[in-house]
Amino acid sequence: MGGRPQNVVLPPIETGVMEFIELTGKTLLDVINEGEIDFKQLHDAGVNGDSIIRINRFGEIELRKKAEWTLVGGLIGNFDERLQKLTGLDWV
What is the pLDDT of residues 42-57, one digit of tens each? Predict the structure, then answer.
């Protein structure tokens, strides 16, 4: 009792996993090129030097809040090369 009923077909697990690189708000400022994003927008969203940030392969910047990730902007251009070079991290 209490287990999963027999002969139940579960939906397939989605294999398209989003990959991110995590960094601090301070490192994010080093990654951003001049004119690429509005710094006031980041500040107003709550980004500071100690913030936990993640960026996906599309360049979307997300800020870690208490119980969620919040989209706060986006990068353009060759951000992936800049991001990997400055952080020393791979996409995971």
Answer: 999 999 999 999 999 9
Q: Which domain holds residue 55?
A: 20-87
Domain assignment of residue 39, yes or no: yes
CA 25 to CA 63: how far, in whole Å? 9
Residue found under tokens 């107003």: 44
* Contact partners, residue 44, CB within 8 Å, separation at least 6: none
Q: Note whether residue 25 is domain-resident.
A: yes
For residue 65, give the nearest of 76, 80, 54, 57 by alpha carbon: 54
pTM over 0.85: no
Considering the domain boundaries, does residue 36 fall inside one?
yes
Give the chain's domain count. Answer: 1
Nearest-angstrom CA–CA distance, 66 and 80: 27
